[in-house]
Amino acid sequence: MCDALIVRSDECLLHVPGAEIWLGVRTPGTEIPERAMRIEQALRDHGHRVIDAGSHDDDILLRVHDPELVRHLRTVWDRWVEAGLTADDRHDRVVPYLIPSAGMLDGLPEREPTAVHAAAGRWCYDTMTLVGPGTWTAARAAVDVTLTAVGAVLTGDHLAYALTRPPGHHVTRSAFGGSCYLNNAAIAAQALRESGHERIAVIDIDAHHGNGTQAIFYERDDIFYGSLHVDPGAGWFPHYAGFADEVGRDAGTGANLNVPLAPGSGDTLWLAALDRIIEGAAHHGATALVVSLGVDAAAADPESPLLITHEGYEESGRRLAGLGLPTVAVQEGGYHLDTVGELVALTLRGLSSCAPSSR
């Protein structure tokens, strides 16, 4: 067994969402800085090596995301302030009020609105994912955390964990939402691909389907995406994606595997679903693995009803490690502060169980 290398950044703590607008009501945010602090402390307590992220250019980021989305995220807070909106403390965060749908445009071209309060909905697809003064810095730092972890794996570490915050798997090429701003898992996969791995598997164990990761790679056959998650057809986010009949398109047909699960499924069904996805990744011929490591399927978590135990998480890591692939794990969800750190630590212990000795 070898310990995972842990990559982190103080800048990932700078995003303070302040709230979510849920069904038109302002509610407390759940994706808060303390999540990352609890995870890091648990991993230090478990004796893992911890390093700070290095800086990286935007090359990989801009191959995963539309440059205009990146520009929007980089500038929208300053534009919000310059427009005078923060003079009213009820507008202390950027939040959409108008989201242009295909039905609204009815074939007309998408345009960039002049008003920043309208532009907010051009790029963000929900009202839960607010932007504040530290959001861009934190999201961009999470990219550096991710790429540092990828670099460690490419230079000899078998397993590196990116303590990414905010999370990322709900971000498509050109839209963000679901408390996510930039897609760290997709960036990790793209970086591994460009560094010589011909086929990558991205396996998503977060409680919710990673609609963004799926969308980014949906027409590609070099990156397999597999997700086990609470059934969107049972009324769970992201509602419109994550169904079993979504198998990829064109060249990517067969490289996408969703296993939606009924609420209350528990460890046995969850792990059986994971086995199906692992089999799919092996059949795909992957030579490197990215794990979207969300722990919000846990029994105590307020965001999911899947009821997965601590033992289930450790076993999930052990089964993923059975693929024997160099692995980058990136943090996604997990919102129960008293257990999130231990759940991540147990999953990493499982992931370490079949790893070769570290360099």
UniProtKB/TrEMBL annotation:
PANTHER family assigned: HISTONE DEACETYLASE 8, HISTONE DEACETYLASE HDAC1-RELATED
Taxonomy of the source species: unclassified sequences, metagenomes, ecological metagenomes
UniProt KW Hydrolase keyword: yes
Name this polypeptide is given: Unannotated protein
Protein family (similarity comment): Belongs to the histone deacetylase family.
Record CDD domains: HDAC_classII_APAH
Keyword Metal-binding: yes
InterPro entries membership: HDACs (IPR000286), His_deacetylse_dom (IPR023801), His_deacetylse_dom_sf (IPR037138), Ureohydrolase_dom_sf (IPR023696)
Family matches, as SUPFAM superfamilies: Arginase/deacetylase (SSF52768)
Residue ranges of domain Histone deacetylase in the record: 33-350
GO biological process, any: epigenetic regulation of gene expression
